[in-house]
Amino acid sequence: MGTANLMASSGQDVDFMIHGLFSYELFGQTFWITTTHVSILIVMIIILIFAVAARIAISHAGEYPTGFQNVLEMIVEMLDGMVESNMGVHAKKFRNYIGTIFIFIFLSNISGLVGLRPPTADYGVTLPLGLITFGMIQFNNIKYNKFSAFTDLFKPLPFLFPINLIGEIAVPFSLSLRLFGNVLSGTVMMSLIYSLLSKIAIGWTGFLHIYFDLFSGAIQTYVFCMLTMVFVTQKIPEDTAG
Predict the structure, then answer these.
(1) Rounded distance between C-alpha atoms, residue 83 and residue 185, angstroms
(2) What per-residue confidence (pLDDT) applies to 3?
(3) CA–CA separation, 206 vs 194, rounded Å?
(4) Are the C-beta atoms of 179 and 105 separated by less than 8 Å?
(5) Digit-coded pLDDT (tens) for 171-218
(6) Residue 100 half-sphere exposure, CB side, CA atoms within 13 Å?
(7) How far is 15 from 237, CA to CA, in rounded Å?
(8) Parts of the chain with a pLDDT under 50
(9) Under a CB-based contact definition with an 8 Å cutoff, are residues 185 and 16 in contact?
């Protein structure tokens, strides 16, 4: 995932790295505003504008939905259906979170289509997403399983505790590395194409963007959200009401 403006101006060097735009001093430390920060800000502004427009459209909704309202209802029904099919009776509690990260990750993944460096091609973005999901998994584990959330680590045999513990700790890294690796690989591929084939990279590269940005971006978004739902649901006892 990436676009021509990520390439070196000479067209000879490959450039898919994160770049610092400007720095500032705070409490004696130097902090940098990078291309990732700018991309995240733009994605957040787009989401905010969309949310405000959606609120206005819903507040003035007619008896029969038309235009933008149809789009909103389609998106909500799609996300609700995805969450319900994976989480069943527990879907109502988690659909807001899943819907939020789905929209954020998807827009971040496809931002290469408009000339941005995808924020999800930065591990500093995907790791916090994985850690937030990990926190939700363990919160629900303790909430519903109480003390057995810890004793289960010693099952089926006590000496398997280290393996079980590593399996739990690996979850956020597995989620974040999968998303990061797939998005970054698309960024690298498009960077190589624009750099090494700069003289003929006109027109036909759009088909590659459809795959690396749109198709792959949608798949990775769904995989992240699906695994989040599966991991959370696994920690909730089956006999627990929604």
Answers:
(1) 28
(2) 45
(3) 12
(4) yes
(5) 999 999 999 999 998 888 877 777 776 666 666 666 676 777 788 889
(6) 9
(7) 49
(8) 1-12
(9) no
| Integer Cα distance of 93 and 236 in angstroms | 12
- CA distance linking residue 38 with residue 40, whole number of Å: 5
Tell which residue, 205, 182, 215, has the closest CA to residue 6. Answer: 205
- What is the C-alpha R_g of the chain? 21
119, 120, 130, 126: which is closest to 40 by C-alpha?
A: 119
How far is residue 164's CA from residue 152's CA, in Å, rounded to a whole number?
Answer: 9
Separation of alpha carbons 57 and 51, rounded Å: 10
Q: If we measure between CA atoms, which residue out of 107, 122, 101 comes closest to residue 35?
A: 122
Alpha helices in the chain (DSSP H): 35-59, 68-87, 91-109, 123-145, 148-151, 161-196, 205-209, 216-234
Q: How far apart (Å, rounded) are the C-alpha atoms in residues 129 and 117? A: 18
Give the Cβ contact number of residue 195 at 10 Å: 20
Residue labelled with tokens 């021509």: 4
Where does residue 200 rank: exposed (0-12), middle (13-18), buried (19+ CB within 10 A)? exposed
- Give the integer Cα–Cα distance in Å for 23 and 12: 28
pLDDT of residue 150: 87
CA separation for the pair 238, 242 (Å, rounded): 10
Q: Do 140 and 235 meet the contact criterion of CB atoms below 8 Å apart?
A: yes
Identity of residue 237: P
Residue with tokens 């733009």: 42
| pLDDT score for 51 | 92
